[in-house]
Amino acid sequence: MSRKGLYGLASKAGEVAAVNWYPGHMASATKAIRERIKVVDLVVEVRDARIPLSSANSELQDLLERKKRLIVFNKMDLANPNMMLKWESHFEDHNQRHVFVNAHQTRSVRKMLDVVWDFLREKLAKEPTLLLMIVGIPNVGKSALINTLFRHAHALNKAEQEPLKKAKVGPLPGVTQHISGFKIGEKPSVYVLDTPGVLVPNIDNIDTGLKLALTGAVKDSVVGEDRVARYLLSVLNSRSAHLRWTPELAQAESDTSEIGENVRKIITQSCLKFDGNLGNKEDMECLVDEQMNLFRRIFKVPAQLGDDGWIRVSKQLLKLYRTGRLGRFTLDPVPEVDRDYVRFENE
Ligand SMILES: Nc1nc2c(ncn2[C@@H]2O[C@H](COP(=O)(O)OP(=O)(O)OP(=O)(O)O)[C@@H](O)[C@H]2O)c(=O)[nH]1
Ligand SMILES: [Mg+2]
């Protein structure tokens, strides 16, 4: 297998490119968000719980900081619980109102609503109408969150409700392309705006670009499935992810019917056997090459697919990570702590 480099996004050795993914609708959406936000009572900024800092849109932060803002870390079901606790205290220390949620769970979204009502308590008593706006990078679950909010409101106010409507939700980034409103409360009337996910035009930090690709905010094809999958493996290897998986995987000989378990077994056994230095880029690339070859076998990729087979292997690996079948793994380290701390906290 050809070495493509784990850390850079460039095709030529030594040349490292920024991630450029800024489809036409994002520029107009960013403009529309800047305009509409002026009349909003509360901004709910949705980020990914696995990358609490990397999933912030840096260009919008100045604007968001000037508004009443609640940061919602979504997809908490995929983030490491210990790391979430550390992130909670980090944001508490910074006096930033925040809440971790799973947008698919009504109970979790209700918890978020309690924080919202508390934040807006004074306004709720005075204003007949309130407007909330949900913003964030693509694919963090803004529309899924709105659907759960709306369904919950619908169940509470059956008699007065408008017909049940739904925001479109999908696994790829860029699903919502226009701002649209949903009524989620009566007396006072509360409306919430769903907005298209927006990124900065150029993501110069390669690590941030790879994390955004791995968690699904940037289309895989922009960075390349193979590169994102190899980045995933390098992160799992360097942070000794296998130490938190079941010890039986180290000895397991036969494959099981659960593909995620077989992948974890390969990672565990290859890491335990590995006698190189994981801090060394070349050594890490050798380990990842070896693992990719083993995955190709267990994913039963036909030899005639040639190099396209690596894309198939990569897609499978990315799917396993994104559905939590490789464990709950947080990618962003909490600031001002060393790398060992992050590694062990993910265990
Ligand atoms: N595991 C998990 N998946 C979620 C959660 N919330 C949303 N998703 C999934 O994430 C994907 C993206 O959800 P959307 O609601 O379309 O995301 P969005 O932020 O509206 O995306 P854009 O419209 O592209 O900006 C979908 O496949 C959802 O089912 C969550 O809390 N946990
Ligand atoms: Mg959406």
TrEMBL record:
One of its GO terms (molecular function) is GTP binding. One of its GO terms (biological process) is mitochondrial translation. GO terms for cellular component: mitochondrion. InterPro entries: G_CP_dom, GTP-bd, GTP-bd_ortho_bundle_sf, GTP-bd_ribosome_bgen, P-loop_NTPase. It comes from the Eukaryota. The keyword GTP-binding applies. This is CP-type G domain-containing protein. It comes from Ceratodon purpureus (Fire moss).
